[in-house]
Amino acid sequence: MTTRYLLQGVRPYGEDATDVLVEEGRIAALGAGARDARDAQVVDGAGLVALPGLVDLHAHLREPGREDAETVLSGTRAAALGGFTSVHAMANTSPVADTAGVVEQVWRLGRDAGWADVHPVGAVSHGLAGTQLAELGAMAASAARVRVFSDDGMCVHDPVLMRRALEYVKTVDGVIAQHAQEPRLTQGSQMHEGVVSAEVGLAGWPAVAEEAIVARDVLLAEHVGSRLHVLHLSTAGSVEIVRWAKERGIDVTAEATPHHLILTDELARTYDPIFKVNPPLRTQADVEALRAGLADGTIDTVGTDHAPHPREDKDCEWAAAAFGMTGLETALGIISTVMVRSGRMTWRDVARVMSQAPARIARIDAGDRPQGRPLEVGEPANITLVAPDEAWVVEPAHMVSSSTNTPYGGHELVGRVRATFLRGRPTVLDGRLVEATPAGAAR
Ligand SMILES: NC(=O)N[C@@H](CC(=O)O)C(=O)O
Ligand SMILES: [Zn+2]
Ligand SMILES: [Zn+2]
């Protein structure tokens, strides 16, 4: 028999306190019905916000190929600690996840690890080369049931290939997740093109390189009648284009990363490549536009773009360093600090952008292991408990990701994950991984 848990005094969506009884992997009772649960293990949830388990549409778990940076195991441990019960693993691995064989391998590694559901993203093009469509149908039909396709790291820049990909995924109700970057406008680019790039002497990356692709792709999605998801929006102009497209009825969704909601290009003055990321950190005006877009629903999801890199790829001069920063363990703290404490969003909004919307976009909100479901009786007990007022200092050395390239080392965040339940089984309790968890118990 599996353990029953009584989460006492938690606040679902940050609203009125109640008790939640977790039994047989599901939410068995709420409120008065939960109170007389005998022999249940009690979790003191006083003051904690209960959210549906977080869903990340955008993480780089690096396996296969760069196990020195991260593995499915280490990455999903980081995910659990960050409050996630489901992560999408990007396809820019080695070999690339462009066949049924590779996506099944990643999916199986996730199952065996047992820390969070792993949904592999399938590549759009063979080898991410941008010329030939990958075997999208075979990946969709595989055990991994791929629904999100992306060449992330690379842009699907050929409009004919993009059109074909959008047409193809309609047959499986899939979505193309685009890394919007016109490569001809960003050759050699190192940081946002603007005042700061001119002053520090690093090659600029113009906002139009992103916006031109976002504009093209919403029009292609409209023409084809297919679903488009735009990854890591970074400019005010991109937010405007997505807002326009939604008003027009185009089936587009969009993502913002935590770092683009808090950091700016001013940080490049340090020449510390910890701040080097793709797309680049932009201006304060862009940050403000992204925050407004997330709050008003123009931007549908927060995706971490967790991009671990080993020390040797970051401890070098700016121009030689890899693009990317880790994010799974700090995402909730940043959204809490930037969006909730400032009054821009409620915890119900956080549940929408970090759980419900990403699950719906990836079509994992139904089926045998649904994610992003409401906190209601009968639903799977995927639950994240957050201490909304807990201040904590990010300590890179204490992170469980195999890589330590976080830009937030030494910074204080307010709002911390205290517990994560994956189908009724705690992966995190008291802010720590539950190591005794038998791998795969949630199968
Ligand atoms: N975001 C990054 O700076 N890097 C990502 C690729 C990507 O998301 O485009 C990576 O794979 O390292
Ligand atoms: Zn990308
Ligand atoms: Zn990415």
UniProtKB/TrEMBL annotation:
One of its GO terms (biological process) is purine nucleobase catabolic process. It holds the Pfam family DHOase. Keywords: Hydrolase, Metal-binding, Pyrimidine biosynthesis, Zinc. It catalyses: (S)-dihydroorotate + H2O = N-carbamoyl-L-aspartate + H(+). Its cofactor is Zn(2+). It comes from the Bacteria. Binds 2 Zn(2+) ions per subunit. Its EC number is 3.5.2.3. Zn(2+) 2 binds at D152, H179, H232. Substrate binds at H60, L61, R62, N92, N278, H309, F323, G324. GO terms for molecular function: allantoinase activity; dihydroorotase activity; zinc ion binding. Gene3D superfamilies: Metal-dependent hydrolases, Urease, subunit C, domain 1. InterPro entries: DHOase, DHOase/Allantoinase_Hydrolase, DHOase_cat, Dihydroorotase_CS, Metal-dep_hydrolase_composite, Metal_Hydrolase. Residues 49-235 form the Dihydroorotase catalytic domain. Catalyzes the reversible cyclization of carbamoyl aspartate to dihydroorotate. HAMAP family: PyrC_classI_B (MF_00220_B). Belongs to the metallo-dependent hydrolases superfamily. DHOase family. Class I DHOase subfamily. This is Dihydroorotase. It comes from Cellulomonas bogoriensis 69B4 = DSM 16987.
